[in-house]
Amino acid sequence: MKRSRPPSRSRSRTRSRSLNVRALVALAVMAGAVAIALTMPVRLGLDLRGGTQIVLETKSTETTKADREATDRTVEVLRGRIDALGVAEPTIVRSGENRVVVELPGVQDPKKAADVLGRTAQLTVHSVLGAAEKPADATEGRTETAEDGERVLPDESGQSLRLKAATLTGQDVKGADARFDQQNGAGWTVTVDFKDSGSDRWAQVTGEAACNPAGDPTRRVAIVLDDKIISSPQVDPSVSCGAGITGGSTQITGSFDDAEARELALLIKGGALPVPVETIEQRTIGATLGDEAIDAGAWAAVIGTALTALFIIVVYRLMGALATVALLCYGLISYAALAAVGATLTLPGLAGFVLAIGMAVDANVLVFERAREEQAARTRPSTRSALTAGFRSAFSAIADSNITTLIAAALLFFLASGPVKGFGVTLGIGVLASMVSALVITRVLAEFAASRPAVFRRPRITGISSTGPVRDALLRRDPFLMRRPRRWLAASLIVLVVAGSGILVRGLNFGIEFTGGRLIEYSTATQVDPDRARDALADAGFPRAVVQSSGDGDLTVRTEELSDTEAATVTKAVAELGGETEKVRDELIGPSLGEELRRDALIALGLALAAQLAYLAVRFRLLFGTAAVGALAHDVVILVGVFAWLGKPIDGVFLAALLTVIGYSVNDSVVLFDRIRELLGKERKAPFDRLTNDAILQTLPRTVNTGMGAVLILASLAILADDSLTDFALALLIGVGVGTYSSVFTASPLAIELHNRDTGSRPGRRRGGRTRVTGKSEKPGKQVPTSRTERQEVR
């Protein structure tokens, strides 16, 4: 006995040291989160606070007419510039034939934003023919001849230069970045990378200039932006005549500060506008949602979060209470991260943020259920050792499920744009914050509490000393759910066909973000409260109308396409509230989620699914990745089909819900497949269908408890929140239900069928009894699913 004490003390000291390190990390993270939350407010979106509206008008040139097509192309270039400016969740729509309405939430310097958006950003590169005899200012800054396209422009010092016709344009540019050149002392510079064809022409123009003597103006190359020379450097003497500068990049130097360099880089990288634009109006606009809608959404979020916390505490007692504290810390960390990256918080984003709290319960539930298994299998002498084993055993499932979600978030951020890009930011922050909450904060609190003598003497208060009612019921009945996997696949196929047929029979009811519609602005004798106008238009048959205050007392109404009779009904409803009413503007508007944005989002989503499939194939097996993606496609089609049958709008809010469901579905499947992988490593000769069935029974308590956490929040949003969030909550309720079902009864049977096809085997049959996969003998009358930790210790 005495010999065993020193190792025991050593292990105790090691555990204490690890606990102290985690506690310090947790305190550091929380201190940073509190500091950021107190000093950096989160930017609120157009729906919660309003913002700045800028109206731009496209102008025709000698070569390009400012028609609808050119204006639509202008919208996409402006969207890229706004993304580069760091403005999240903007609204950009074409209005009429040649106007663009840009709405920016929480912009600190609207004038600067308008200036950046209004720059045409026509970049050209010219050979210098020599100094001009006539100053450029005598001809208002430039002269051109129709024959050869020569022009005269002043350089940075004011000297007039004769420039040859442009050799390169912005179409030849691949990218641009602002960098600080500390090594050469050049300060802030802009590095421009050319495409392949542009690289050859850049070598040509610099090679021609290198043939002239040093100091001669003809040895210079002029880089022009919007008819202004921004840089005209001499070609370095080391460059030989005719060879030019190869490598496909150049550096623009000048007296830039960091803001000017970054602005120039984003203009060059974003590309030139196809036609010039002019700012014709700039005003402040109110929130698209009323105070009542915002208050209702906030109360629903608070009540849903409280119900979820109460549920976790009832199920896991002391550990549940500590997990609730960790979840509050998760909320603070996520809020601070959103503020730090300058993200914009909208009402659907707020609801998704609250839902993420419910989904963050998942990691805690995984750990507690594994600790229950350890405790019930009697392989751990204390609650603390069971918790330690639970964290260790659950780590692979938590890591794999979160990494697959982070892959999707990263691809959405880098490849998509607009609200889809913003969703990628929010999703990535939520995943990282949940991992810190569960693996660091919850572990510190749980292990500290479990090591207290009072808790050691009363293990029942921890909530992990018993297996729980769901697991007990499964152990009593011991159902063989995967006896006939093809029946489950057939049932899934039937549901899929019934729901999916709604897309063909009823069609999709696309919202104004996808289809465009009509924008009417009113000036009323008496200022109209937007909340009252929303209620009046809903009563008149336009529940989806977007109503905002605009400028000095005006009111804007944005709806789907209207007939003249319907437009008259809208005008009448506004006039009844505001008295004498005048239409200031009445124009057709294009979609805010334009064709290019939708295409980028689909490409990003497709690549995200392919990357997830590849990761799952590497971490598990290809059949697991295929089954998970198959279940995901099943969930998406069913959700879209149900909304088609119900006639619900497919809009930006639904898009956010759909992306959330995709993450939830993959997460469920990964947790199940992680357990199958564990059992396969333990009992390779056992039938695959029986191993899968064991994995389902062992992970089902986690699936039920995690699903309940999400459902309580979503039900609160659906019942208590305003109509603007009802469809969002409904979509997620359907998605959570279908995702939970598909992970068990679609992904698992599909994996079994793929395995049987690969091995040429048939599903196992139960004869008399069923062999369970266990790691050691158990107490009579008590069947307990085994775990990886038990397998490692029992030889």
Structure description:
The longest helix is centred in the middle third of the chain and has 50 residues, at 291-340. Strands 5, 6, 7, 8, 11 and 12 form a 6-stranded antiparallel β-sheet that branches. This protein has a 4-stranded antiparallel β-sheet with strand order 3-4-2-14, with helices on one face. It is 57% helix and 15% strand. With 795 residues, it is α+β, with helices and mostly antiparallel strands. Residues 1-5, 138-146 and 765-795 have low confidence and may be disordered. It starts with a helix and ends with a helix.
How would you describe this structure in keywords?
795 residues, four-stranded antiparallel beta sheet, 21 strands, SecD/SecF_CS, translocation, Multifunctional fusion protein, cell membrane
Helix content, binned percent: 55-70%
What are the segments in which pLDDT stays under 50 over at least 5 consecutive residues? 1-5, 138-146, 765-795
Describe the global form. Answer: globular
Write down how many β-strands occur, each being a DSSP E stretch of 2 or more residues.
Answer: 21
Individual helix count: 22
Percent in strands:
5-15%
Can you give me a brief rundown of this structure?
The chain is of the alpha+beta class. It is globular, with a radius of gyration of 32 Å.
List the helices and strands and how they pair.
Blueprint lengths: L4 H35 L3 E2 L6 E8 L9 H18 L5 E5 L3 E7 L4 H9 L4 E9 L19 E4 L5 E4 L4 E2 L3 E9 L5 E8 L1 H14 L11 E5 L3 E3 L17 E8 L1 H13 L6 E9 L5 H50 L3 E2 L1 H30 L6 H33 L2 H33 L2 H5 L11 H9 L7 H21 L3 E2 L1 H4 L1 E8 L5 H10 L6 E5 L3 E6 L4 H15 L2 E9 L5 H25 L2 H25 L2 E2 L1 H31 L5 H33 L2 H23 L1 H13 L28 H6 L2
Parallel strand pairs: 1-15, 16-21
Antiparallel strand pairs: 2-4, 2-14, 3-4, 5-7, 5-8, 5-11, 6-7, 9-10, 10-13, 11-12, 17-19, 17-20, 18-19
Protein name: Multifunctional fusion protein
Subcellular location: Cell membrane
Membrane topology: Multi-pass membrane protein
